[in-house]
Write a structure and sequence with these properties.
Serine Threonine Protein Phosphatase 5, Tetratricopeptide repeat, 0% strand, mainly alpha, 78% helix
Length: 426
């Protein structure tokens, strides 16, 4: 036992020969870590810059010799705060810095993020060259795929847009924006049942994002699951009390849930306040009219429903409820007139939905594009019809005489503003 203790003391003495090996081991460890960081300097610096507060990034970027990484990191930080106009400026500074020092990996990142910010600002055409270059440099560029999906969804090519968003969710499964974009595209393409799962994933990953709760509530409302929609809209308002869109959606969903006179009395003041605030919104006026008709306020219901149809002529629910109101009052002629209007609008909506689905499979079909433009014009959606004619002339058939004539007629009568010759960078 004594021998064992003496040997242990000898090993632990400061003057033991093993002490030199310990020192050299520490030196080698530090040198190895330094060499590893040097070999991966760019990724290490990117990781560090992502964690720098915004005010310090702005100070770094204001220096005369700030490099592309600093401008890129500042642009990302601004984009996360929805300050896309400033983010575009930062990404532009990063591209200018990259002209002096070629870095293809960083250029792909900057191009992808720049395209995404331009799409968020509504400059879809300006975003296309950047996202194309980003995908040429890096086929797995997540922001570029996300921007491409949003451009396609904006052009209402939902089938290919949904494919792009699925690619985003596979490349970045922990990014809530990809799941949200996928669910939103499914909602807009009239597939709310399929939209529920990705939107649930989005709110699970980012429960403090009001937009995600609002989209999930819309998904339930499209399927007449109004109680669940109310819960989602309440969460959206709770997360962002200043979100007027969420407030309006909540009031509308609560009005559609009203089943008893007590429910009616509870939701009516909020709905009336919303209708007064949005006096030129036909949908809100129609919701008030439908609620009033449901609980016997026939004179007010008639006034509101007529106002809704004057503001929004293609509102089938308002036409149907006005027809039922006249039927209860014994006004058979008026009831038949509005019932025919309702049937016509329903048939027109089904025709437009069918054209959208067919066009998503054959986006360059000239006749389908023309038929959709004519149907939208017939519905009274002049802005959407003009957009369809412009797409046809720009992308499918630049010499199509009918599309050019119809677009000219819409512009001449002031239904849509004349398109500027060239969009400028924001």
């Amino acid at each position: 036992m004594q021998n064992l203790l003496s040997r242990l003391r000898k090993r632990l003495r400061p003057d033991t020969p093993r002490r030199g090996w310990t020192r050299w081991g520490g030196v080698c460890l530090v040198l190895g870590l330094g060499l590893g960081l040097a070999c991966r300097w760019e990724s290490t610096r990117a990781w560090w810059l992502e964690r720098v507060p915004l005010k310090y990034l702005e100070a770094l970027a204001s220096r005369p010799h700030a490099d592309a990484w600093v401008h890129y990191s500042l642009g990302r930080a601004l984009a996360k705060q929805q300050r896309h106009r400033e983010a575009v400026d930062s990404f532009g500074n990063a591209l200018r810095a990259l002209q002096q020092k070629e870095n293809l990996a960083l250029r792909a990142r900057v191009d992808g993020e720049l395209a995404l910010s331009l799409v968020a600002l509504g400059h879809h055409r300006l975003a296309v060259p950047y996202l194309k270059r980003a995908l040429e440099l890096d086929v797995a560029n997540v922001p570029a795929h996300l921007a491409l999906g949003k451009v396609l969804a904006h052009r209402q090519h939902y089938t290919v847009a949904i494919q792009e968003f699925r690619v985003v969710t596979e490349l970045a499964p922990h990014d809530p924006e990809g799941w949200f974009a996928l669910g939103q595209a499914l909602n807009e393409s009239r597939q709310p049942q399929e939209a529920e799962a990705p939107l649930r994933k989005a709110v699970e990953l980012a429960p403090r994002e009001s937009r995600y709760w609002l989209a999930l509530g819309d998904c339930f409302a499209y399927r007449a699951r109004f109680e669940e929609a109310v819960e989602c809209f309440e969460r959206a308002v709770q997360v962002d009390p200043d979100n007027t869109t969420a407030q309006g959606a909540l009031v509308r969903a609560q009005s559609l849930c009203a089943r008893t006179p007590e429910d009616y009395r509870k939701v009516r003041p909020a709905l009336l306040q919303l209708a007064e605030k949005e006096a030129h919104n036909g949908f809100f006026q129609g919701q008030v009219g439908i609620l009033e008709a449901q609980f016997g306020e026939e004179a007010e219901a008639e006034r509101r429903l007529k106002l809704a149809l004057m503001l929004l002529p293609d509102y089938p629910e308002a036409a149907y409820n006005l027809a039922m109101l006249y039927q209860r009052q014994g006004k058979r002629t008026e009831s038949q007139r509005w019932l025919k209007r309702f049937q016509y609008l329903e048939a027109l909506h089904r025709r437009i939905s069918s054209l959208w689905r067919r066009l998503s499979l054959r986006p360059h079909d000239v006749e389908l594009n023309l038929a959709l433009g004519r149907a939208l014009e017939e519905q009274g959606s002049d802005a959407e019809a003009a957009q369809q004619y412009r797409y046809l002339l720009r992308r499918v058939d630049p010499k199509n005489a009918e599309a050019a004539a119809r677009l000219r007629r819409l512009e001449q009568r002031g239904a849509v503003p004349r398109e500027p010759g060239k969009e400028a960078l924001p």
